[in-house]
Structures are given as structure tokens and as C-alpha cells.
Design a protein that fits this description.
- The structure is a single chain.
- This protein has 111 residues and is of the alpha+beta class.
- The protein has one domain.
- The chain has 3 helices and 5 strands.
- Strand 1 and strand 2 form a beta hairpin.
Length: 111
């Protein structure tokens, strides 16, 4: 049986806006600690956009080639984290947050 994934309490972070769907993001939950650090990954809870935190905890999207390179490296160095990240992103890309809140998925919009 697979070990459960522990999601820690949500933690407030500086307000960001997802560059893909435009939703306001001001909190996060982590898989090992609550407070994110520079270089930590984030997945938008509305559309699944993968981003990375900088030193001020602002989010910067990872797309295209940089995302592919990151995921390939993560898969070889830490397959468990790679699996959690990709499955989480797919869950939210498929309307996960709206399903949790009991709403129909909203199509992504450009900010």
C-alpha cells in the first residue's frame, strides 16, 4: 500500500496572480514544510500552471523547454516528487479546485 501524501497547513505568501488563468494566489500548502523557499515549485490550484518561487516568494511560470528540462531532471533525481508534481498539475488542469468547491470547471483565461 502506498504511503499517504501529507499536505501541510496552508501558509500565506505574497499575493501573486497566475499568469495562465489570472486567479489571485495568496496561500500555499507544502509537501514537507509549509512555508515555501526560493526555488520551490508551485502548482496553481485553479488551472495547474507550474511556477517557481523567487527570493521574495513571487511566482514565475515554468513553461515550454524550461519546464521540460526541469521535469526531466526531477524525474531522474526524485521520481516520487516528480510524480506528485505532475499528478497535482493534471488534477488542477482538469478542474480540480472547481470540483472540490462543487462548481463546473472554468476555462482558463488570459490575464
Amino acid at each position: 500500500m502506498q504511503e499517504p501524501i501529507v499536505i501541510y497547513e496552508s501558509e500565506e505568501v505574497p499575493m501573486n496572480r497566475c499568469t495562465q488563468c489570472g486567479k489571485t494566489l495568496d496561500a500555499c500548502s507544502g509537501l514537507g514544510r509549509s512555508r515555501p523557499h526560493a526555488g520551490d515549485m508551485s502548482v496553481c490550484g485553479y488551472c495547474g500552471q507550474v511556477a517557481i518561487f523567487d527570493d521574495e516568494l513571487d511566482l514565475h511560470p515554468l513553461t515550454g523547454e524550461p519546464l521540460a528540462v526541469f521535469l526531466k531532471k526531477l524525474e531522474s533525481e526524485d521520481p516520487d516528487t516528480h510524480k506528485v508534481l505532475t499528478e497535482t498539475a493534471m488534477f488542477f488542469k482538469n478542474g480540480g479546485m472547481n470540483a472540490i468547491n462543487g462548481r463546473d470547471p472554468e476555462p482558463p483565461r488570459n490575464p
